[in-house]
Amino acid sequence: MMHFTVSSLLEYEVTTPVTFLLSIRARECPGQSLRFENLQIPPGLEHHLQTCVATGTPFDRLHASQPGHYEIRYEAAVELAADFIPSGSLNDGGPPAFNGPVLPYLYPSRYCQSDRLGRLAFDLFGKLPTPEEKVRAVVDWISSRLTYVSGSTDAGTSAVDSLVERAGVCRDFAHLGIALCRAMSIPARYFTGYAYDLSPPDFHACFETWIGGRWLFWDATGLASPDGIVRIGTGRDASDCSVCTSFGPLLLLRQEVHCQLQDPAYRKMSMEQMQAYSISLEPYIP
Questions:
Q1: In the chain, where are the structural domains located?
Q2: Are 189 and 215 in contact (CB under 8 A)?
Q3: CATH of domain 83-242
Q4: Does an H or E element contain 141, and which?
């Protein structure tokens, strides 16, 4: 078990009445439990906590009826357990073994146009014998060919755009990884979280693949240790778990994100460990 405290501060300017959704809560789910959490919102904001039926991701729905500056603070103490699975030890049954909840993560989505990347994926990775080896090769390929450039893309950038531009931020690395995996019939989903020792501190995007009955975690940017990240949400792509979705004009003035370690025995995974093990942030349920 590992223990982290996470926090975020978001300050917005509102000029006209607006409703917006925030996805900043650490998620209560198998493998991750909340020991404490607190959301502070200013007077004048209507608030409802909702959960996405399809993904289980929690959202705070807020409505500002008056112009002004609104500051939202969130903090939580989180306990999480990561399973270290020796590389190559999972037996994958392929599509015949996929259950209903996994199927949506096989299809193309708004930012992950896997239907356009089939030939590229199979030319590059199709001859590798197992899904796990294919995903590892996808992660290595993205890491070596995309350059992480802060602010280089926007909310409209897709996996195909990133492939052309060869640059992006964490969400772009994740979208490309997801699209290439789905193109090879490997279910893949988008993941957002608070990442320990991330520089500069921010919300972080990665992805997971369904292999051998487990969701395995991958970070093509190489910026976060797989066992040092607190889950916020999952979905088909960033459209399912964006930090903020606004139904009207909303200007972000300030954002602060922190993830602090509370376990002095924790040691960040080495590159050798990342090659020797796959990481699942959810326990195995037969």
A1: 83-242
A2: yes
A3: 3.10.620.30
A4: helix 131-145
